[in-house]
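Title: [Solved] Cystathionine gamma-synthase 3D structure

Original question kept below for reference.
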Amino acid sequence: MSHHDDRPDVGFETLAIHAGQDPDATTGAVIPPVHMSSTYVQDGIGGLRGGYEYGRAGNPTRTALETQLATLEGGAHGLSFASGLAAEDALLRAVLKPGDELLIGDDVYGGTYRLVSRVLGAWGVRHRVVDLTDLSAVRDALDERPKLIWAETPSNPYLRITDIAALADLAHAHGALVVVDNTFATPALQRPLSLGADVVVHSTTKYLGGHSDVVGGAVVLQDDGLAEQVKFLQFAAGAVSGPLDAWLTTRGIKTLAVRMQRHGENALALAQRLVEHPAVTRVHYPGLPDHPGHEIAVRQSSGFGGMLTIELADGPAARRFAESTRLFTLAESLGGVESLVNHPASMTHASVRGTPLEVTESIVRLSVGLESVGDLVADVEAALARV
Ligand SMILES: *Cc1c(COP(=O)(O)O)cnc(C)c1O
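Solution (posted by the thread starter after getting help):
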């Protein structure tokens, strides 16, 4: 089943609201229903009415989400999963076999590195950590004939920018696939498939869902054969999204474009204030002109997103700051309408301690939400005053 809703002349905002979201054919309900059914009647053995036979294999609410995801990323196939890591796992096991190698960026979500190093590692897949912003280092690593390059851009937690088109050119010349984790940018700001990437993955838990009320993941890609293999693992291993989760995610995605625009405006305003602040040693935000990836970000995306990482004097200062904000809630995760603060070294990236991805104790990551920007700035400044 191809999930791409092919309306090339229609704008992103229109697609986000309408792709896969046709009114219900039987009742006329404008909003497609949540199909809470595990199984489907057969009119005689094998006589399926809508192509559905069992909830793990397919569900109409999940199809609505998968169509929306494929359309927004400009891919032929969208597949949704129970979590971002479930999506990553299915994709990696579809592409890699024991003995294969992959290259992974040196600044990625801690759980992705744990999956690659400990789960796929135990299965015999080898990995090599590379700074993907350094294309000559990538070129050297490609001599080992990796099957796949895993890029996260902007990366987590340092917001580094990888040149997707340049990486794809290099990888393809060496027979490697390029996977981009597009969780931070979202298709509202960056569409990696149009830049040459082979596969996009998402934690839809974050900006796509957008309201911190559902966990999910997705794989979007062009190649029919690879899509068939990922779909087989989705079915055979069964880490699918449930109908209510799929429905909540489709609802969140409808407002993605306006949310991402405001997340970016608020994050930029905060970043500009924080570069001036004496207690802040460094601000990592790709929207700042002196960010090393700024020019690439301007070229390959239409905005810089809502994530921002600051460095304070030391670990204790960073911890104290993270525990001192009032509006920014101390919690894992990101991408919801509410602002969150996180101390990566002890929270999201605790699992990469002692690995090449280890992050310093002195950074704090902010997920800048959609509250009044003046309130956000005041909250951060008050917390810095307490440090
Ligand atoms: C959260 C996250 C993941 C993992 O997704 P889950 O939905 O938590 O399984 C992967 N990549 C990035 C960039 C993330 O932020």
